[in-house]
Specification:
Helix content: 25-40%
Radius of gyration: 25 Å
CATH topology of the largest domain: Aminopeptidase
Bound molecules: zinc ion
CATH superfamily of the largest domain: Zn peptidases
Shape: globular
Number of strands: 24
CATH class of the largest domain: Alpha Beta
Strand content: 15-25%
Length: 445
């Protein structure tokens, strides 16, 4: 290297240090993330969007307009709040990630209905069986506005795409506020959920709405707030006083009261323990909301995080994966596609009936008991698409059974119980890993 090269390097280094100094000097203004994105589409294909403000670990989600057209004032409020926080994102504390969803029910809003486009009340469609209160469990026949009884709970819990979108979007939330009108009070998730009660009291004091310990007029089943509370998400419903005004000052006061005390009201995600094994909170919620022990079996090992920041945890039937690259999507937690790797043992292919649904993407059919189970237990979101025909093979219990491979699971039919069960793909993965390790040891010796 001659002196001219040395000179160039010295100049470059000085320039680099100088620009570093400038960027350090400019740092005090916190540049919080502000973005709008689509979370999913309604049953008629209208976008359901969210605005995000900030980058903190405490996820607070405001949900407008679950009840469509008659509660359009909650949509207007959400839009006004978005404008307010866009104008001054620094209102969101550094430890918080605030999301605002203007409408969870764009079809109802467009079609002039309280229900979604399929005639389902989205605030009666959630799977509320996780808590100790059976009276709020999901039912087809529900009480709606003014206590009017109708069969609008949906065909089964979480049957609606809008319910599935909010379910999967809240998997890593600490607190959720669902705007409704117009009973003029604020109430928490049922079943004595302390974080929801604290959140409702703070919102009431900030908004000047009356705090109500519970919704008295009639019994709500399959409610979104009760569903969230049962997964230990602090959840409340502010009911506006009027049916037509956004009541912006009141609700801004409520939201700011929550943000001012976010350390207590929007708790940090915390690890959960199942059968002595620690689970990251979003993985625990996914495991629980999609069927828990009965569906996934038990956790087999603690979660492990790789160099790319991806966390994986094996359960008996699946390995669940949390990928930070998928944050803010409904696929934040997903099962590994282990069904693609399963080698058939000694199979007999079964003929596909003429009326089976065929998936274009994979060319595989779906029908009968497997179709019903797949649809009701989480569909493509949980199991992926079918990738084989139905076949007979040895199942994990040693019996020959009717089975089918999916991207993220293998189904086996147990006629003696009329049940579909999942093959233990997570267990196989753990065993394979241990065998690989043992082979390597022997090889080295
Ligand atoms: Zn409502």
């Amino acid at each position: 290297m001659d002196w001219r090269q040395v000179y160039v390097w010295v100049v470059l280094i000085i320039a680099g240090l100088a620009s570093l100094g400038q960027s350090v000097a400019a740092a005090p203004l916190r540049q919080a993330t502000v973005s709008e994105f689509e979370i999913g589409r309604s049953s008629e294909g209208r976008p359901i969007t969210a605005w995000r403000f900030g980058d903190g670990p405490r996820k607070l989600v405001l949900v407008g307009n679950t009840h469509g057209f008659p509660e359009a004032n909650t949509y207007t409020l959400a839009m006004l709040l978005i404008e307010h926080f866009r104008a001054d994102p620094a209102l969101v504390p550094a430890s918080v990630r605030l999301y605002i969803i203007p409408t969870l029910n764009p079809d109802g809003l467009a079609l002039g209905s309280r229900f979604n486009a399929r005639g389902v009340d989205l605030n009666r469609n959630m799977n509320t069986t996780f808590d100790a209160c059976p009276e709020n469990d999901w039912q087809v026949t529900v009480q709606g506005a003014y206590g009017i009884v109708s069969d609008t709970g949906g065909a089964y819990a979480d049957s609606e795409i809008e319910s599935q979108i909010i379910r999967d979007f809240l998997v890593d939330a600490s607190a959720a506020i669902f705007f409704h009108s117009n009973a003029g009070n604020v109430f928490p998730a049922a079943c004595e959920h302390a974080p929801s009660i604290a959140l409702a009291q703070a919102y009431a004091s900030g908004s000047s709405y009356a705090y109500a310990r519970r919704w008295e007029p009639y019994n709500i089943t399959g409610g979104m707030h009760d569903w969230a509370g049962s997964l230990d998400i602090a959840a409340i419903i502010p009911e506006f006083i009027t049916g037509d005004l956004p009541e912006f000052e009141e609700n801004l006061g409520g939201v700011l009261a929550v943000l001012a005390n976010a350390e207590a009201l929007v708790p940090l995600p915390r690890e959960r323990v199942v059968l002595g094994i620690t689970l990251p909170e979003p993985i625990w919620r996914f495991w629980r909301m999609h069927g828990g022990y009965e569906r996934f079996g038990r956790p087999l090992a603690p979660a492990a995080t790789d160099d790319a920041g991806v966390t994986r945890q094996p359960f008996t039937t699946m390995v669940l994966e949390l990928d930070p690259a998928r944050i803010d999507t409904v696929a934040y937690i997903r099962a590994l596609p282990l069904g693609l790797d399963v080698a058939p043992h000694d199979i007999t292919l079964l003929p596909t009936p003429a009326d089976a649904r065929i998936f274009e993407e994979t060319g595989a059919p779906l029908y009968g008991a497997f179709a019903t189970f797949w649809q009701r237990a989480g569909a493509a979101r949980v199991f992926g698409l079918p990738v084989s025909d139905e076949y007979e093979d040895l199942a994990a219990d040693g019996e020959r059974r009717i089975m089918q491979r999916f991207e993220r699971a293998v189904f086996a039919y147990y006629p003696e119980e009329n049940q579909v069960r999942l093959e233990p793909l997570g267990w196989y993965a753990v065993v394979r890993q241990r065998l690989d390790a043992a082979m390597t040891r022997h090889h080295l010796q």
